């Protein structure tokens, strides 16, 4: 079964390796490096049809270097992810997903934290032009747009942050709430046409600032937003000595109980996590999750979690379906999609 994964940090790993800051070896190769949870071979093996790639900057990057660091990751996306793997196809607009061929994998650029552009909206517009289709205003820290989940003061959006949300709406770009403060989350709910939690779990099951409480989850579902469950062990359960796929499924169960069965997806956070769920250690193991989900849910519901819910809630495309061959056909002028054959 196809997978759409809305969050990974492979670009950061590629950049750190290139700069010699993290891995004591030659630059990584996206095609098959064992260091990458989401290398091309593993995406193929796991049935991933669309992979989101985050641009992420550590908070300690000096302000005057942040834009350069972001552009380095964009360049690695173009040269290493796309340039050396012809089957990886850049998704520059949401309709591009529908044109993927059987052997192709879509690649989506996202931004995790507005630090990259500071208060320069010209830089933000350039990111839109480069193909960024989802923007999270913050990581855990505060910046010029908003407070993150780890900022003690718990402030909301600044005027700049609100303007960014409005620009996301105009460009059919997701506003990602996964790292926002609680106050920032509720202000995004008031403004965003396309909210998404790209990698968050249920706070009722694991009381962690990065997870969403029940009222937040219900608000997301009411706003037609997506919540994509994350594989970070600390967001799943308190005892992380061994975490099973069944522990992750409890979070899906909880969100389903809140009315979100049609709005749950997957945001692995591969390459951004250092410890892994048992039998879900990298992208090649995605079908283990599918197999476990099929023990508890109908085939249609599992397909929803895996890819269809995302397709039906893409900005500007409210209904859709992908077949296992990755081919699509427009059924009518109202945006409904059906399988070929």
Automatic annotation (TrEMBL):
| InterPro entries according to UniProt | Metal_Hydrolase, Pept_M19
- EC number(s) recorded for this UniProt protein: 3.4.13.19
Q: Name one GO molecular function term.
A: dipeptidase activity
Tell me the keywords, alphabetical order: Dipeptidase, Hydrolase, Protease
Protein biosynthesis in keyword set = no
Reply yes or no: does the keyword Protein transport apply. no
Top-level enzyme category: hydrolase
**PANTHER family, A to Z:** DIPEPTIDASE (PTHR10443:SF12), MICROSOMAL DIPEPTIDASE (PTHR10443)
Q: Under what name is this protein listed?
A: Dipeptidase
Q: Which organism is it from?
A: Planococcus liqunii
